Amino acid sequence: MTKTIRLTMAQALVHFLTRQMTEIDGEKVPLFAGVWAIFGHGNVAGVGEALYGVRDQLPTFRAHNEQAMAHSAIAFAKASFRCRVMAATTSIGPGALNMVTAAALAHVNRLPVLLLPGDVFANRIPDPVLQQIEDFGDGTVSVNDSFRPVSRYFDRITRPEQIIPALARTMQIFTDPAECGPVTLSLCQDVQAEAYDYPESFFEERVWTMRRPRADLHELKLAAEALSKAKKPLIIAGGGVLFSEASAALDKFASATGIPVCETQGGKSSLPDAHRLNMAAVGVTGTSAANRLAEEADVVLAVGTRLQDFTTGSWALFKNAGKTIIGLNTQPFDAAKHRALPLVADAREGLKELLKALDGYTAPASWTKNAEDGKAEWQKAAAKVTAATNAMPSDAQVIGAVQRALGTGVIALHAAGGLPGEMHKLWQSGAPGSYHAEYGFSCMGYEIAGGLGVKMAWPDTEVVIMMGDGSYLMMNSEIATSVMLGKKLTIVLLDNRGFGCINRLQMATGGANFNNLLKDARHEQLTEVDFAAHARSLGAIAEKAASIAELEAALGRAKSNDRTTVIVIDTDPLISTEAGGHWWDVAVPEVSSREQVNAARKNYEQAVKLQRVGN
């Protein structure tokens, strides 16, 4: 006879989470590191009561914003190279909807997070309840259906026993490198409290590891043949290199073959910046060293990247008409993009097998030397733009100051706006994972919440967050959470008084300065925000630096501070690094009364001719 234990659905869910384990460096640890929760009438009585019962095994963390707490959970998973996961639970209605943006971010970046929004009553007797959206033509719809397109797996739990197959599917998603992403289990609030006799076997401890698929022999043969004929080969390292913990394999592959490496935003820090074959950033925000090689490359080995438009320069970067792309990726959808030769495999195992199949191939010495010379030239250009100045500093000069003050032994985090372009080019990364960019979804407001998640994954490593005033004003509440949890962050806030990046794009496409910088937005009086005072009000240590020299001194003091520290510095909104970079496809109006727009349109029409459609 099957032994059972009677629990509510919510109790069964959280008890199951406590029994899922993984191995990291030979040590067994809980797969789920905790649950972020903001309680409301859709989850406080069910999930809230259940979490209280396991609070010593599965910590519950209180946040101040539902989107932010999901960002923290996602950043934790990314910093853990997808080996560990967090969950996030909300009430119904606005609390649930606040997490949809975060779900989309996780979906784009292929990151695991378990989202547990409360839902309406399955029995529908109290309908319409507080915060319920009613669909006039479909009685089964709630706001949580918004999660469907941004979840790898979505399930609405309308009976307590449904949690058994739903959690089984959840674990399959989280431990499959090809399918990994967000899971949403929409929990009807009455069902959370309903009891069921669950089999005890459902709660048996299980140790999970991410599978490492090996290459198909035929695909491996074709990839090796193509690469062995290459005269100008290039490797693009994407985020999959880090998720696979394949940095050592990539180093060995590049060093043995002499093939230069460039990195996407997600893949940056796959190799140390100091590695002789690391050309650093590629694409729209790339270095001249990397992009020069990309334009000429005859074989491109794309490892663990989804080849989005910033990497490919909107598919205008790779100018060699006879080029071959090899897509080494666990996800067939990504491996075969743009008529690539697919090599469906784990990045680490795929690189090992491909190196063996190449049987001693090395790139022409002239190509490798050309790459090394180009890197030296780029380093001179980068040193010039990051040097200190007494004028209103640029983003690049602030980056240089932070790098000089903190070195490469920190984790640098940023997201959206102008900083990703500058950081991708100019920041010098050290260990794998020391560069954390949210540029897959480019979500403003990710920075502080994401930094908190990274700090929870790496509590003994300094986390420095670089962000603009626009992102800070969008979402800053998790400063208070970081102080409350004793997770120290160093936040460098660059105040350019508006959305400087989009203002520059507006100008570049011929538009008038309009609605981006504060001075160009409709106003009766210009706002003077005292960011340092605001940060102090949330519990942080904060100061404003009047110069690059003062910034470096403040960063020195921040090292010994006992809690989150915010350093504010005014920056120039119009300056960006001209060296490196590549064209990006942003459509310009065909018709306009502005001469500047018409001129930009002519330039745009010439640029799109360089795009390689379908190859």
Account of the protein in words:
By secondary structure, this protein is an alpha/beta fold. The chain has 3 domains: 4-208, 3-Layer(aba) Sandwich (Rossmann fold), CATH 3.40.50; 217-377, Rossmann fold, CATH 3.40.50; 387-570, Rossmann fold. The strands form 5 sheets. A 6-stranded parallel β-sheet has the order 5-4-6-7-9-8, sandwiched between helices. The termini are far apart. One of its GO terms (molecular function) is flavin adenine dinucleotide binding. Residues 221-354 form the Thiamine pyrophosphate enzyme central domain. Residues 53-131 form the Thiamine pyrophosphate enzyme N-terminal TPP-binding domain. Keywords: Hydrolase, Thiamine pyrophosphate.
Helix fraction bin = 25-40%
**3D shape:** globular
Number of domains: 3
Radius of gyration, rounded?
A: 25 Å
CATH homologous superfamily of the largest domain, by name? Thiamin diphosphate (ThDP)-binding fold, Pyr/PP domains
> How many individual helices?
24
Q: Quote the average pLDDT.
A: 96
Structure in a nutshell:
The protein has 24 helices and 23 strands. It is an alpha/beta fold and 615 residues long.
